[in-house]
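Section 5: illustrative case.
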């Protein structure tokens, strides 16, 4: 891709909600989007997790390297978007977590990340939904170059 390609959206519903205790963060948002017919959105989450799986993309090997923290941590920030992959809502999110001593870790958010408590602020976007497709250059599923 040689240039920036953008899509224009109108603002839809603004939804605030409490996420379910003991459930996976990503699955909870995906299920909500499916049930609410949301195909494009941005969101943020605050709260706490009982455990978290996060990682970073190894660009040379073209794989995610992940690790799981099985300790309670505070969600310092979690931001992401909702788009489509295979006609279903899919979450792409990054998270920063802090422990009781102020140690911070962060990266790409993965399942299984178990919620202790969470609040979501989701902004629906109205327009032609972006579709994630395989990108040969990076090995990632990125937004189509032809929205």
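Designed sequence:
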């Amino acid at each position: 891709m040689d240039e920036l390609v953008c899509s224009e959206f109108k603002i839809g519903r603004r939804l605030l909600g409490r996420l379910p205790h003991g459930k996976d963060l990503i699955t909870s948002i995906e299920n909500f989007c499916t049930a609410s017919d949301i195909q494009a959105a941005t969101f943020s989450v605050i709260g706490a997790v009982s455990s978290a799986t996060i990682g970073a993309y190894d660009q040379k090997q073209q794989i995610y390297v992940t690790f799981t923290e099985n300790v309670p941590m505070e969600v310092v920030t979690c931001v992401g978007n909702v788009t489509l992959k295979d006609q279903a809502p899919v979450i792409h999110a990054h998270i920063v977590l802090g422990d009781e001593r102020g140690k911070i870790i962060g990266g790409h958010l993965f399942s299984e990340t178990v919620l202790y408590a969470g609040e979501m602020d989701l902004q629906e976007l109205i327009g032609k939904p972006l579709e994630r497709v395989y990108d040969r250059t990076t090995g990632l599923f990125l937004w189509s170059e032809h929205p």
